[in-house]
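#lab-general

N.A. 3:47 PM
ok so I finally got the sequence cleaned up, no stray characters, all 332 residues accounted for. can someone with queue access submit it? mine expired

B.Y. 3:52 PM
send it over

N.A. 3:53 PM
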Amino acid sequence: MNPEPRPLSGHVALVAGATRGAGRGIARGLGEAGALVYCTGRSVRGQPSAYKRPETIDETAEMIASVGGRAIALRVDHTIEEDVQALIDRIDRERGRLDVLVNSIAGEDPMMYQWGSFWKTDLKNGDAVFRQAVLSHIITAKCAAPIMIRARRGLIVEVTENDVLSAGGNPLTQTVKLALKSIALNMAAELKPHGVSAVAITPGFLRSESMLEHHGVTEANWRDAGKKDANFLESETPLFIGRAVAALAADPAIMTRTGQLCSSWELSREYRFTDVDGRRPDWGAHAIDWSVLPPPFVDVFRTMTTMHLDWLTTLARRTKEFLAKIPQAPEP
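B.Y. 4:20 PM
back already:
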């Protein structure tokens, strides 16, 4: 069963990076749930993606409208603070509220596609990667937070990759994806006294437009790709993570999750929403077929994950010791 129809009726959402992939899916999920969705990005009709992709925010808004939702597509470069502030001012002027902000900017930026050892990484686009994929998120959250603080309600969502520390295949991508997780955590601590929550979220094996293209299939015959990669049979459409975000936004107890790193599959277990085809893909329960990956990569991933666990265990101990030294807040 999917969530109750239109639980977000009357809510206003901004999905920054709603052009394709998880961002498009989240915009659709929020629109499906009844929110008015501002869909922003740089790819509009007549001004194609710098990635040479065909998708546009106009198409995303039309998809939402086709199922009875409401959406407004606006071209915004989220690396330019003045433009983002103008967007937030417009939303405030037109709607007087902002209930959900989703930062899904540059999630599939080709500049982060490199794989290989850090000492072989091409860094010529390093500054551009961090500006596009990290600074843009901070700018957008900075501009949006005051409206939520004023209303003492709201949810900020950072879309990242993987529900562990590791992600990507080079230091640029790894730094970006880890940063987005920590940004949500740090924002949550500052926003909690104001009644505003912040979380990071990851999809499972996302069946995005580019991933379908990479596997040489379409949404109509996507299972054919499972013949070469059995893991693909546990993949999910972008709408699945969209329904996950909609479920979070509709949860009156969302503050109990603030600061957490969530996943589409764990939220599906709890909120009982499904994917487009009625399935409930569960990447966390999936027995990954590692044979499709190069053995050296698997070895590094195993070593890295083991070291992460040791690092987190030590960090947890040190953090508890440090916390014990902080004076308790006085009773109200």
